[in-house]
Design a protein that fits this description.
The protein is α/β, with parallel strands linked by helices. It has 4 helices and 3 strands, in the order αβαααββ. The protein has one domain (8-153).
């Protein structure tokens, strides 16, 4: 096994390989035509969506409260089990009585159908701030949509 820095020839070959891989990545992204943004809450999703807007992407809404979400997909975040939360409330009225982002199930729309609907409307980016697809019957079946360019942004924990 070789250890140590690359020789000049190895460095050139490695750079050429990386450039080829990047070019394949760009070509594949263009072919897919839709960015599926796997939006992890509180990790810069508003900024990512706004960058998409500034770079010519199209979506249903770029407003800060929608962040590239598509209303009919119902991929908005859900933070609290509403049923359990309401069982905890016992006679005292507070601003927290009704959870703001209570959990509920979404209508599962397949990756193929999502892409078809997005392209028919001229949309090139959308966000999913809920869960990966296919995991309801078994979490091991959860997956990203391979027919779109999936982007996952995470924030550095400070």
């Amino acid at each position: 096994m070789y250890r140590g820095p690359f020789t000049h020839e190895q460095q050139v070959a490695a750079e050429q390989l990386l450039i080829q891989l990047f070019q394949l990545h760009v070509a594949n992204a263009r072919r897919k035509r839709v960015v599926e943004f796997a939006h992890v809450s509180k990790s810069g999703g508003t900024t990512f969506c706004q960058l998409g807007n500034r770079n010519g992407c199209r979506s249903e809404s770029f407003s800060p409260n929608n962040n590239c979400l598509i209303t009919e997909f119902r991929d908005q975040p859900r933070y609290v089990n509403g049923t359990v939360h309401m069982e905890l409330v016992s006679g005292v009225k507070t601003n927290c009585d009704v959870p703001k982002k209570a959990m509920d199930l979404r209508l599962e729309i397949s990756c193929g159908e999502r892409r078809r609907r997005l392209l028919s409307r001229g949309y090139s980016i959308y966000a999913n701030e809920y869960t990966a697809f296919g995991g309801r019957p078994d979490p091991r079946l959860a997956h990203a949509c391979t027919n779109m360019l999936t982007v996952l942004q995470v924030d550095q924990v400070v």
